[in-house]
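Risk register update: the risk of archive-format incompatibility is retired. Evidence:
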Amino acid sequence: MTVKDEGAGTPEDDPWGFLPARKPAAEATPKVAQPAVVRERGEIRAAVEGSSLKKRAWPMAVALAGIFFAGFVTEVVAASQMIALAGTESLLFIYPLGGLGLLLLGLVQFRLVDGAARLKVLRYATLAYAILFTIALVFIAGGLLPILAVGLIWLLADQLNYLVPLLVWSLAGDEFNVAEGRKVFGWLVTWTYVGQISGLAVALLTPILLQGLDFDLSWLLIIAPIVCVFLALWLPHALRNSSAAKGTAHRESLNESIKGAAEFINGVPVWRSLMVASTLTFVAGTTVIMGYSVGVGDLLGRDAANLQIIFAATWLVALGICWGIQHFFAERIAERAGIPGTLIILPIATAIAAVALALGSAIGSIAVLIVAIIIWRIPRWSLDENARRGALSLVPDERRTRVSFLIDLTPVAVGLVLAAPIVGIGFATGVLWLPGTIALVIALVAVFYSRKVMKGWDDSLMNWRLRRRKQNRAIDFGSDE
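Archived output:
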């Protein structure tokens, strides 16, 4: 993610021009030469530092790549093992537990992330995950409650993918100012793709290459605790001389933290609509994800290797398309649609994915189910993530991480909890296309609220609760320059 000095009309007159839902018509007219923009001190420093910025960001790049590598390979393997051991009905319990776990640990991080040194929080978090992973692996190796142990690992991997990266990005926000961030954040995002693709590649190729060797695929689950221990020991040492280890000057109680973030969302009406739209989108989207897993599991049976290959290959294709969109199209889409116009893409895609889920479930087609999940994953992992980061850049520094937890984490957790009963209706009634139809209705309501975000976005920029700076810059997601 990079940042451009670009606004609507004259940059000096309207430095917030990149934020409206639609660009003014004047932008389409030929532009006359403008006086040179005076750069901030931080931007001049970023321009002359060059590769030294990447050197400072290197530990965070390794951390993001390692977390997503371990998280993705573990989640795919654990999901395959779980369905093979307990059948697709087990997902009705795993998903709600995953949502509740995200909310619980999210509240803990919500309380600590700005009130304590972030490196300390990250070290304790990764060590705690390593210990829990190891305990579950001991149970699996000893044949003790393997279903519960694999379920625990799946839940931990899900949290590893959602919660720990937020801590690393908080470190990056501490370490780099806005001008430096425009140079290095896009590079960091590239490393998240490296970790994700590597993890999925290992999950995909291992059962293929080791076929016939009687290799127990559950051994791949040992990767996660090894990576967690490495990061807990190495990252604080690598960042010992940086400014990324600091917390805020004072601690707040959990009630104060939640109240401050909620006050911001309630005080900016368009953010209330965004919160509702996000929650509904993730309820419908998680129903698509769960419906896909149930459908593929029922059609393939309890073959862990085949399930792992299908899950990993599907995610890998989606991730490859996402990388292409990020690299070639994200910048132009962001500039043309703006933040609110980009945010409506995921709800629309969710509605289309729900239709594909209903169709694939009705006719029993793995291919159509794969299309459904890819339609959901592509905007979720690319354009929607970009737009959310851009919207959150408007939140005051002291509240951004906590507002991020509410906007990013809460909808995901609620989606995990509510998707299970929706899919459960399909189990109970035997009408396999019903969950997809319910998801479609929910997604259409999310589109309605997303349109409210688009209509109210321009007026919301005048709200005093949004961050004001002398020079704001347009957010450009498409290049590393």
